[in-house]
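Morning, I've got a small favour to ask if you have a moment. I owe you a coffee for this, so here goes:

…
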Amino acid sequence: MAHTFTITISDEDYKGLQYVAADPDTWFANMVRARCDSGKKDVQAVYLQAKSDAGEAIPAGGVDAHVNAAYDEGIVKTAAQANADAGPPGA
């Protein structure tokens, strides 16, 4: 499944991006992809450590397979789930 994000920025915001990026659309897409890749590597590291600590075999398949397994096995949660589980501040 693929996800599409659409954002609206002001003309001034776009001009600011044009000042720092030759192609703001490509820059933005690359920035999002880089953050996604970083997050996937973080999830994979947590998954591999959890499997190692439990003395369990680590299945082959690469980053995407490990990310899916980490969520499927409940080893990681989304940020929204973790925040909801933590409850309101001071609770």
The longest helix spans residues 24-53. The mean pLDDT is 95.
